Amino acid sequence: MISHFSGTVIAAGPTWVVLDNHGIGVKVLCPPATAASARVDQTMTLQTSLLVREDSLTLYGFVEADDRDAFELVQTASGVGPKLAAAIMSVLDANQLASAISAEDEATLCRVPGIGRKGAAKMILELKDKMAIVAPAGSTPAGTSQPVAPWREQVADGLIGLGWSAKDADKAVEEVATLKEADPSMTIGNLMRAALRSLAR
Q1: Among candidate residues 185, 192, 186, the one with its CA nearest the CA of residue 169
Q2: Does domain 149-198 bear CATH number 3.40.1350?
Q3: pTM over 0.90
Q4: Cα–Cα distances in Å, from 186 out to 24, 34, 85, 141, 161?
């Protein structure tokens, strides 16, 4: 098990980064917000989960350990594989997910592409007792440091990389601008999630 991985960013895409560690480039799949915050030649550390299959080894990475743990936990629910788990963690962080499940908030879970009402209800039923172990509802989200690069560009680039038009990306950035003004320390990850939710309305 590889629990975390550090390296220099040598490439990044909409949902992945490549980290160089002593001459070895490792591709890590990650949420769009994390990929959007990656900058070439900067050091990055991700909390990771290794998926082992007969024909492949896939490494998923997250900024926060709670998000990594939540990614692994949601896969214990029936019908939730790595792809859907990654989609969940792209829209909700561990604390938001725990709160939604604790409050039996199906609407919040349905914001995730691929989850309908029945799927949300099933997840709540199967995970309600488990989720509090990963991120107790009401806990304060970690990682609220000020991003180094201009946040508007990072969020817009992340959305465009996911297939949204530049016009839609700019509109979503404006939607979340008030959140950034109210809380200047709001992270790129949280801004990206808010932008995705605004586009899903």
Answers
A1: 192
A2: no
A3: no
A4: 33, 14, 24, 10, 21
